[in-house]
Amino acid sequence: MSFLTPLFFLGVAALAAPILVHLVRRTRARRVQFPALVFVRQVPQRTIRRRTLHNLLLLLLRCLAILLIVIAFTRPFFSGGSAAKDNTAAGATVILLDNSLSMRREGMFAEAQRRAETALDDARNDEQIALVSFDKRYTVLNRFIADKNRVRLGISGLSAGWDGTDYEQALRGAESLLGEIETTGPKRIVLISDFQMPGWTSAGATFKLSNNTQLTTLDVGGNNPPPNVAITNVEARGVVFGQKYLDNLVVHVNNFSDTPKDHVQVDFQINDQTVEKRDISLNSRDSRVVEFTGFNLNEGANRCTVEIIAGDFAPDNRFYFTLRRETPKQALIIEGASRGRSDSLHLQSALTTNDDLPFTFALKSAGSVDPASISDYALVVLNDAGPISSALADTLAKFVNAGGQMIVSTGPHTQADTFNNSLQQIAPATLREAVQTKAGESVATTEVKFDHPIFEVFQESGRLAAANVIGYFRSEPRANAAVLARFEDGSPALVEGRTGKGRVLLFTSSLGPSWNDLPLTPLYLPFIHQMVRYAGTREANAWYGLGQTFTVGKRQEQSPPAIDTPGGARLSESRSTPDGDLLVTAREPGFYRLRYSSQPDFAAVNIDGAEGDFTKINFGEFMAGVTGGAGSAEGAAANRNLSDEQVEGRQRVWWSLLLVALLLLLAESFLARRTKMVKMIG
Amino acid sequence: MTSTTATRFLDPELLARVGSLELLARAVVEGFMSGLHRSPYTGFSTEFTEYRQYNAGDDLRYLDWRLLARTDRYFIKKYRADTNTQCHLLVDTSASMNYAHETSVTKLQYAQFLAASLAYLLNRQQDAVGLVAFADKVHTHVPARNRTGHMRTIFGNLSMLEAGGETHLAESLHQLAEILTRRGIVVIISDFYDQAERLQEAFQHLRFKGHDLVAFHVLDQNELDFNFTEPVLLLEDAETLEQMPVLPDVVMSGYRERMRQHVEDMRRCAAANHVDYEMLTTKQSLDFALFSFLSRRAGK
What we know:
The complex is a heterodimer of chains A (682) and B (300).
Chain A: E1 2-3, H1 16-27, E2 30-34, H2 38-42, H3 45-73, E3 76-77, E4 92-98, H4 108-122, E5 128-134, E6 138-145, H5 148-156, H6 167-179, E7 187-193, E8 213-219, E9 229-235, E10 239-240, E11 244-245, E12 249-255, E13 261-270, E14 273-282, E15 287-292, E16 295-296, E17 300-309, E18 318-325, E19 329-335, H7 345-352, E20 359-365, E21 379-383, H8 390-401, E22 405-409, H9 416-423, E23 429-436, E24 445-446, E25 471-477, E26 482-487, E27 492-499, E28 502-507, H10 524-536, E29 544-545, E30 549-552, E31 562-564, E32 575-576, E33 582-585, E34 590-595, E35 601-606, H11 619-627, H12 644-651, H13 653-681
Parallel strand pairs in A: 4-5, 4-7, 7-8, 10-18, 19-20, 19-21, 21-22, 22-28, 29-35
Antiparallel strand pairs in A: 1-3, 5-6, 9-12, 11-16, 12-15, 13-14, 13-17, 17-18, 23-25, 24-26, 26-27, 27-28, 30-33, 31-34, 32-33, 34-35
Chain B: H1 3-8, H2 12-15, H3 21-35, E1 47-53, H4 65-71, E2 75-80, E3 86-92, H5 107-124, E4 128-134, E5 138-145, H6 150-159, H7 169-179, E6 184-190, H8 196-208, E7 212-219, H9 221-225, E8 233-237, E9 243-246, H10 248-272, E10 276-281, H11 286-298
Parallel strand pairs in B: 3-4, 3-6, 6-7, 7-10
Antiparallel strand pairs in B: 1-2, 4-5, 8-9
Helix pairs in contact in B: 3-5, 5-6, 7-8, 8-10
């Protein structure tokens, strides 16, 4: 409640008048001698006590009337949560209650529930109220009803979740909900949250509330967010094929507070055994990277955690991920038959320098390959193989359709017609003429899709263009093929296509030094490794974010495994793919246990690391961004289109107060007069 | 002097300005007597009883000259005195008698005026008048006499009375019943703050001793009305000094009812014991009291 003219509160001093009169009259009880009190004493004293109470009641009435008159003169009005209590028609209110992870801070969600109930109490009885909880998603718990008790029940049944915050999404949802109801009264959104900055970015905001929607914000986060250090990300390769993890396991630790944090211990564990500990210090608003490498992994799925001992908000101090050590599969390199020196020399060398590749390679000429043996391999590399038999071509087509992976490269031994005929079913592009640059000239690779897994390692260096290409095939990609890189003339350089369950990568130049100098550059090794890894990788993330959906395949079993949630409950809600695999949406941080009968597996799920940043949102920007006008921390947006005088003028609370004061004075007058009459009649 | 003027002198407020009780009593009685000419009640006089032979030394004023003329014999008219009754005036001087509300005359003063007037009146009738004053016990006793100058003793003692002490009216009356051995009239002037049952026993005791009883119940008008302007009072009992906060407008009706009941009880108690009872307020003129006294006595 606010007051337009609070100086009138000085009038409260007028309360002294009736009190003084009461006290003075009481103390002036004159002592009078009377012949005998025998008959006075016989009069019931109860009457006298009642009279004392009567006088106190009169005093109370007088004081209350004066107080109400004084308050009426201050011209009070309700702002914020009570704004709905005006004289207009009943409106509609959406209570948006933040139940994101950050609301798990001690007592915060209970406070939010309390504020929600207060907002509910402040609403008119005939107001249509909807209850919506939100984190990164929003959930409508009650559509518009005028039954406060049901809404109250919904509020009390809520609890804070694990997901991050998205205010824009929530406001969109609330606005959409308000659009469903037709009312002549005000439409209002009561947003109850800790208002942390990561939930809203002014730069990315594209949504504004409509002009006839009022926004009331109730902040339960306090003005001084507590310090917090959190693990925000772990970069890891989910599947490895060697005993040692040779890549860098990168752990991101953030200090979200303005005070430095020293001696933060980072504890890396595999299968509940500590592998390594680090001690780090973080400056204010600092982000540190901690790397682990060279540690051993067991066969199969390894449950890994990184934990920091910081003594603050606990949910973001532990990060879960899985590292799987799998046995490399067989791959076949098929090259041309008649050679003096193998054209696959560089390729073979590149593939054998790393024992952490998903394949072990065998090299055969096209003529020596038994088509029946193709099914023994998971990957086939056609390295400028030249003409192949129709039987092999058919087998390769079946192989790809069944889920096999192929990498195809051209070269001087490749003829476009033969190639197109043999591999027309599976090749992602149709070859046209071969292009040979003039002597001393070359073309570079352009339009590289660096966001593709094959090229993402080159994103920062950008040196892929350094390779000089002197020969390539022009090609025409198939309709469902993706061009991952092109040559300077726009001709596709690397094309990816899917056929059946398999995948084919077509490189329209050579993987040997015949048509380019790629094998002679440092780019060659990572390029080949990335292609092979990409071809051999199944979807096996080290971890999933909360809310992300992951697939749990049947593998060699008849049906998908039973799944236990991190809390230990058996997962009952899941969807299935057409192939019978399960689609599981991560709702809880920790390890989901996939109960395969052969060997258990795990899926790690983590919270949004940014949720640990409790920095307050810039309310001015937020309100301006969301409502298009100025806003303040609490409740000011409720009447953003009205001045205080206008709000007060609409509500006219003073009028009611004066009316009540008048009634009180009438009651006082009646009681006082009744006393006097009793005295006169008596 | 007109009757109005005479009556004016009977107003207690005015009489209070007269310093001498003797003067006061004379003014009251003479004024009262002059006013009686218009009264339907006839007066009193000496009464002829017999003749006797004149002896030397007899007062010639009583010689019956008519009889001497007719019979030539000397006879003296013998008159019987109207009365030779003893009358005791009992005045209550307890502290409660010191009350006056919105008047200058306290109940005790009124009792003094009344007693003085009665004494004067009775003395004029040749009755022997005595005075007894009491509070918690009898503290003043002037035996009944008919001598010249006795009135001064009576008036002197009356004027010296002061209010004080608690009332033990029944006990005092019992005590007086034993003291007053000769039959006579006992006039009790009191506010009668005692239980009617106890007083009844005392009246019976006095009646048993052969006394005729006259009770003047003297009250201040405010003792009947309980009419105070203040919203709240701290009442103090004049005798026990006990204090009690009171809201007069609340207590008033209950008090009045109880007081009315008490007066009624007193009236009933007096009637049952053949006691001439009269309730007087200190605002009433004294002739009312005298008239009441004489009219009741005329019937005896």
